[in-house]
């Protein structure tokens, strides 16, 4: 089924090894009517291969498989559930280079970034392999001394997992890891642009010994038509979604019908605040990481830089110098720092946001235009004196564009930082301990990077407040999203 389009032998070998069908009940099978669609390389805008294009009936078959596997999987010994995840962690680690190349081909991020994501993704399996055996309950004497309380935790049941294209594997392992550890079966639907990393991951889980039906994979170009019947199906008990806030809102409404347990990791609009007492070298390094990780296509990407007026010019100049040095190209080469954006829509959106800011008076220090090529490249860009009315002050840029605004007053910058519907992450650079704690407490975000430009870590609770989502992924609480609490009132004692 794969239509090989690349002439590079290693790329061809990596592509040929990936399954391209749907995984339902432990079997790879074509979509109804043998429907397929082409997966594109965003660096060349040419097809890489074709994969199955599932219909709503295929999706309901996957729900059937997940629901049939659920009772036995819930009884599966936690140690064995953990060991499957551990073996998958080891297989991903062994195949690190091939998986990174595959991710770069379908998503565009440079190899170094793909390697980092594969490591990050695998760590969720290692973390949750350890958590599988730590699902505990509680036993206590009722306050009046009569009777006892027993509290137990049980898998919530079959889950629908929906993931975006920007972290094609990590957004999957962050959901699949806790689902498997908790004893839940699942149907996962990756983004249509990046199905290959998920298909490769599912193949690894089968090799690691995952029983049939525990994880089912549906690739499709009909996201809404395929997801809605699954979410409304009474056999499903859980929805975990990562993606945009607009789609998240629609899915909450759909989930209301079956009163699903819902976790949502949605959009962000992260402020990055640099106070006048900050270590400027550290702030510049942190800013490059917070802005340029994943070419800016991250929910955690710094979207608005607020820099104290005493440092703003030097900060902007140093960021512009660093941005101007970055090498743009197809990420499969180790000599590339910045890959393409995911598609034409994303490229157009970044271009529009920059044009809008410039038309309102922002100044371009570097970049500011598309980069030539058949793929979807945009030049790393630094804008200064960005007015608050500019669209990129309130919309997610999702591209390599740093928008810098000077400030002088602490309370005013906190108010500006919080003046958004989003609340995923904020970044703060200061060497004053009291200020650090005062501002951290005042920022309305689920996560804060304090003198640090990267917050993502499988051992930490990742998630947002306000319109950035519900629930947390990773850390000790990540498994809670896939567990229900049952309380038993014991009489006669
Ligand atoms: P998106 O359009 O919301 O898509 C995310 C997923 O939802 C994809 O699998 C997509 O499938 C599917 N989808 C789209 N429309 C749907 C619908 N009507 N019903 C059901 N499923 C639907 O988001 P995106 O543009 O791909 O991803 C970028 C967004 O994700 C950004 O807002 C980013 O901040 C957010 N994000 C958040 C986190 C976090 O942890 N908070 C992490 C990463 C990304 P198709 O691809 O087939 O359309």
TrEMBL record:
GO terms for molecular function: succinate-semialdehyde dehydrogenase (NAD+) activity. GO terms for biological process: gamma-aminobutyric acid catabolic process. CDD domains: ALDH_F5_SSADH_GabD (cd07103). Coiled coil: none annotated. It holds the Pfam family Aldedh. Signal peptide: none annotated. Keywords: Oxidoreductase. The keyword tRNA processing does not apply. Residues 28-488 form the Aldehyde dehydrogenase domain. InterPro entries: Ald_DH/histidinol_DH, Ald_DH_C, Ald_DH_CS_GLU, Ald_DH_N, Aldehyde_DH_dom, Aldehyde_DH_Superfamily. It comes from the Bacteria. The active site is at residue 265. Belongs to the aldehyde dehydrogenase family. PANTHER family: SUCCINATE-SEMIALDEHYDE DEHYDROGENASE, MITOCHONDRIAL (PTHR43353:SF5). This is Succinate-semialdehyde dehydrogenase. It comes from Saccharopolyspora rectivirgula.
